[in-house]
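Worked Example 4.2. Consider the chain below.
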Amino acid sequence: MTTYKVTVSTGEQKCAETMNSIYLTLLDSEKQSSGRTLVNKGMFSPLKTEISLDIHVEKELGDIVQVKLEKEKHLVNIFPWFSEHIKVKTPSGDYFEFPCYRWLVDNKEVIIREGTARLPQDDTKSFQEQRKDELESRQELFRWKEWSPGFPMSIDAKVNELPKDVQFDGNKQSEWDWDLATVNSAQSGTKVADLLLVKIEGLVESWKDIADIENIFGHLLKKNTVLDNVMQDWNKDYMFGYQFLNGCNPVMIRKCMKLPDKFPVTPEMVEGFLKKGSTLQEELQAGNIYIVDYEILNGVPAASSERHLTAPICLLYKNELDQIVPIAIQLSQAPGEMSPIFLPSDNTYDWMLAKMWVRSSDFLVHQLVTHLLKTHLLSEVFEMAMYRQLSAVHPVYKLLMPHVRFTIAINARAREKLISKDGIFSQVSSINEAGMGKLIQNAMKTLTYESLCFPEDIKARGMEDVPKYYYRDDGKMVWKAIHCFVSAVIKIYYRSDKAVQKDVEIQEFVKDVACFGMNNSDNFPKSLSSREQLVEYLTAVIFTASAQHAAVNFGQFDWYGWIPNSPSTMRKPPPQQKGQVDLKHIMESLPDRECSSKVLGTVWSLTRTQENELYLGTYPDMYFTEQPVKEAIKTFRHKLDEVTNIIKSRNEKLTLGYCYLSPDKIPNSVAI
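Applying the procedure from the previous section yields the following C-alpha cells:
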C-alpha cells in the first residue's frame, strides 16, 4: 500500500460554500486511477481553505498527469464549488501541480491536466484528441452572437446565462450592485452615492450660469486635483488643447501637413495666432499644425429633436510655449455660409460655444468608439476566441487568462444597463440606440489591427515628437515592458517560427478573431507565421485590455465631472452664424440639471476600481507552473516598478500630473 499526499485549495470566493459531495481521482499517463476519494467532510467554507488528503493505493501509479473532480449535489444544496489548485506529492517525493481556478457546477465533472504548458503539436495523440473534445465543449458554451448590426460579435448569453467561470465573483458582484445603485440614485436626482450628497432643485431646468453649476457641485469636485484645475481653466485654450494629448481621448489628434478641402481655413484667418512673421504654410511644413476630425459622427442620427450632435473639425497649433491650442473650428463636415469657421478672435461666447461643441463630440466618440469599441468590445472578442480555440494547457491561454478577468461579465451588464435602448447612455447623451449602431458601423470600417499596436498608432498619427504628450511617453514604456514579457514567454514554448505555423490552436484563435469576432474583417490578420508576429499580436491583446483601457477610462471623472468642459449632449443645434449667442443660449445648450447629475454619478461609478483590484503584472492565480515563466513574471514586475517610479518622478515636477498609465494604476483586464 502506497500513499499520495494531496492538497486541495478552494480559494476565497463568496458563495463558494457547498454541502455537496466533492470527489477527487488521480490519473496517470497509462489511465490508471486511484479510485474516488471524498474531499469534503461537511460544509466547505467560502474562505480560503486548504484540505489535506491521504490517498492510499495498492500499486504505485505512474506520473500523475490528470486529476478528476466530481460534484454530487444533495437535495438541500445546489451551490457550485470553486477549486483554486491541487498539489500532489507522490510516494517517491515528486510533486505535481494542477492549476484549476474553475467552478464545479451541477453534477458535472472537471478534468484538470498537470500544469506544464504544452503546444498542441507537442502533445501525445490521446491528449490532442482530449484537447479537441475540450474545445468542442467550450464552443457550445461560448457561442458568437451579433448583439446589434455592425457591432463586433459577442457572447450569446444574457448576464444570468453566462458560464459560471466568467461571471463576477461575490466581491465584484457586490461592488457592481452598489455602483449601479449609485447611478440609479443619481437619476432620481436625490444623491450621487454617499460621496455625492447633493440635492438638486428643479432637475429639468437649465443651469442659470457657470457659477450655478459650481455652487451645486464645486465643493465635491474641488476634492479632485485634476478636476480642480479643469474647473479653473476649462475655458482657456491651452486646457482645451491639452486634453487632446492627455485627457480621456488622446487618440484623435494627428499631425496635419495639408488642410483638407472640406476645411477651408485661409492663412489670413489664423495669421494672428501663429508665431510672429510665420505663415500657415510654413507652420504646416514645420509640423506644428495638428487636426482633430470627427468625420466618424457624420450621418449619425441625433437622439431627439431636443438633443443635437454634429461632426466638427478642429485645427490646433503648437505655439512657442509648446502648448497645443485651437486656432480654427468648423462645426460640420460641409463648409459654406451656414457653417462658419470659428476663431479665437471671435467674441467670447461664439468661441466658447464652438469649443463646447468639439468637446461634446469628443465625449460621444470617446465613450462609444475609443472606450466601448476599442477596449471593451475588442477585449471580449479576444476572450471569446481564447475560450473557443485554446486548450487550458496552451501557454497562450495561461498567458491571457489574467487579462480577460470579468470582461465578458462587465460587457454583458453594459449591454443590459448602459448601451441598451433605454440604457444610461441614451439618457445622458445625444445618441440613442440607432445612433450607436451607426457610429459603431462607421468605426468598424476604419478599425485596424495596426491601430491596436501602440507604436504603430503613434507613428501613423505623426505624433512621435509633439512635446508634453505623456500618454505617448508612458504608453511606449508600458508597451515595451509587455512586449519584453510576452517575448520571453513565447520563446520558452516556441523554438522557431515553424512552431507558430504548426500550432493549430493559435492559428484558429487568430482566425476566429478576424473571421467571426470582427465580422470577417480584412483589417485583422487571419493567420500568423512567425514568433515576432505572435509576440506583437499578444502584446496588442494585453495592452488593449490593460493599459489602453486604463488610459481612456480612469480619467472620466477628472475630465467629465465639470459639465461645461465636456457636455454629454447639446440641447440646441450648432450655430450657423457668428454673433448670435449669449451666455443664456450657452446654458440652454448644456445638459440640464437632471442630465448633469446622471453624468456625474455615472462617470464616478464607472471609474472606481475594485477594493482588491489586480494591477498589471500581479498574477495571484498562477496558471504557469514552470520556473522559467515565473522568472519572466518577476522580471516583468521589476520593469513595471521602474516605469512606475519614472512616471512618479516626472509627475512630481508637473502642475497637472498624468498617472493613468502608471503600471500601479493599470488593472490587468477590462473589468470596469
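The CA atoms of residues 257 and 593 lie 42 Å apart. The chain is about 40% helix and 15% strand. Compare this with Example 4.1 before moving on.
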